[in-house]
Design brief:
mainly alpha; two-stranded antiparallel sheet; 19 helices; globular
Length: 343
């Protein structure tokens, strides 16, 4: 009998192939981010990959596992890539090294490696950095349209490792993100529109620099949907819930609550929708459960953004819903084939 034909169902996917597809899908966002904000993210990603190789090799050695097959399955690469997009591009070098190490050790290996971790490793590392180093994690690189200076690779590396460019300390390279500006403006009695003055200045074709990065993630995410690398329930549930609650509150008070488009194209919204919450290990696995899980993250993100202590609550929303996954799966399990209800 030919092993490649029925009665067996074959899946040509593998861990390495899936992870490679996700990595490729994130490439447009990486290029867009580099074009708009400079080469800081490239330096950070390089540091994260070096940290990944060292930490993964050390942990696998301590666990008595072969190094090459586990390091090359690219699961750790997805973790550090997701984290890199959450870290300010010009953050000190030790931020990404510390965050990547924490994500890999405490988010993956201490639970037994890939497939056994209950929490999303990238978001665990991100939450650790936000809580431990709030100052460094809130100073984001301004787009070239605002700072008036495009940052090259050498300049970025110098700034990340020394805090200086050509021996001079430069503060104008960093500032608040639109989410931070809205939060700060509201605390000072300003309306949402008045708080977004800088964002308006950085817009191209009606979309801000931060918004274009989200658009790039959307493009990569749609490609993942088309080749069935991820399930549609995750982005639909997350973006649908986030858009709906944003629309309701904006209609209620447009001076306090941002419009839907701003909500969807700010922070790490599209990164979360297509690359973070779709993690098959830590997300719900039932068809209905995927929608519930994703919608729950969307609602929590909106709540934390508007009333919580952090401007973008994606990390905490994901981790909270990770905890709820066993309960969601329990109550959303589809009926067994042939099941008959009570008469």
């Amino acid at each position: 009998m030919n092993p490649l034909t029925s009665p067996f169902t074959h899946n040509n996917q593998s861990v390495r192939k899936v992870m490679l597809q996700v990595q490729i899908a994130a490439f447009p966002a990486l290029m867009t981010h580099t074009y708009l904000f400079g080469f800081g993210i490239v330096v950070q990603w390089t540091l994260a990959v070096v940290t990944l190789i060292v930490v993964e090799s050390l942990m696998l050695k301590l666990r008595g596992r072969p190094i090459k097959p586990y390091v090359t399955d690219m699961s750790g690469m997805i973790t550090v890539t997701g984290l890199v997009f959450c870290v300010p591009p010009e953050a000190p070098w030790w931020i990404i090294v510390t965050g990547s190490s924490f994500a890999l050790v405490f988010g993956k290996h201490l639970y037994g490696g890939l497939g056994y971790n209950p929490f999303n490793p990238a978001m665990l590392g991100y939450a650790f950095l936000l809580i431990s180093f709030p100052l460094q994690m809130t100073q984001w690189t301004l787009p070239a349209s605002l700072s008036g200076h495009s940052i090259g690779f050498i300049e970025s590396a110098s700034y990340i490792f020394t805090g200086q460019i050509n021996g001079v300390t430069v503060d104008a390279l960093t500032g608040a993100t639109p989410l931070n500006e809205v939060r700060t403006g509201l605390s000072q009695g300003m309306s949402v529109q008045d708080s977004l003055t800088n964002e308006v200045k950085s817009k191209a074709y009606g979309i801000s620099s931060w918004g274009w990065v989200n658009v790039a993630f959307l493009v990569g995410g749609l490609w993942l949907l088309l080749n069935r690398t991820i399930n549609w329930q995750y982005p639909v549930g997350f973006l649908g819930a986030l858009a709906l609650i944003s629309f309701v509150f904006h209609q209620y008070d447009p001076d306090t609550y941002p419009p839907v488009m701003f909500t969807l194209l700010s922070g790490g919204t599209m990164l979360a929708a297509f690359f973070i919450i779709t993690d098959p290990v830590t997300a719900s696995t039932t068809p209905l459960g995927k929608l519930v899980y994703a919608a729950g993250i969307g609602v929590l993100v909106y709540i934390i953004r508007n009333w919580g202590a952090f401007p973008d609550g994606i990390a905490f929303a994901v981790l909270l819903m990770n905890i709820a996954v066993p309960l969601i799966d329990l109550y959303t399990r589809p009926r067994v084939f042939g099941h008959k209800g009570k008469i």
